[in-house]
Amino acid sequence: MHSINWQAPEYEYYEKKAHWYWAVIGTSFLLLLYCYFSSNPLFAVFVVLSAVLIIYWGKKEPRMIDFELSEEHIRLNNKIYSLKLFDAYHLDFDHLVLRKKSHLLPYLKIRIHAQDKEDIEYALERKRMPTFEYNETVEDVFSHLIGF
After folding, report:
1. pLDDT digit of tens for each residue in the chain (148 aa)?
2. Cα–Cα distance between 97 and 91 in angstroms, integer?
3. How far apart are CA 7 and CA 69, in angstroms?
């Protein structure tokens, strides 16, 4: 089998408008008021650090990742995962989700191009990897909800 190569962004980027930043700042301010009235300075430090990181990550655009699917592994830039680590896959029009045999971080979700879908599906079927029905996780839903 030949390898399949493609490039895709690390994650789906949603442009943040000014109201998104104001919502983060406003929520942080309300939480800081709660910290003040409950005399909880440690939580206040956590709130400030969280707000700074959320704003930083909200501005950060995704980097491009080089992917390679071969008969034995899948490579994401310089990180190589053996296909033996996965027991099933789910493929839709823009994502390949590989289910790990381990229950710690059970999914590897990879963006794909629609034109590569058939080649990827053929390669995984040749490996006799079964499919599974992927349902969005709470993390997926929450990320979309807050614009990440």
Report:
1. 578 999 999 888 888 999 999 999 999 999 999 999 999 999 999 999 999 999 999 999 999 999 999 989 999 999 999 999 999 999 988 899 999 988 888 899 999 988 889 999 988 988 889 999 998 889 888 888 888 7
2. 6
3. 12
Confirm whether 41 is domain-assigned. Answer: yes
Hey, is 107 helix, strand or coil? strand
The C-alpha atoms of residue 61 and residue 31 are separated, in whole angstroms, by 27
Q: Are 81 and 74 in contact (CB under 8 A)?
A: yes
Q: Structure pTM?
A: 0.76
Domain holding 47, by residue range, is 18-59
Q: What are 9's two structure tokens?
A: 């962004």
80 and 129 within one domain: yes
Whether residue 49 is found in the same domain as residue 70: no
- Domain termination residue (choose one: 43, 59, 75): 59
80/46 same-domain check:
no
How many domains does the chain fold into?
A: 2
Nearest residue to 113 via CA among 5, 3, 33: 5
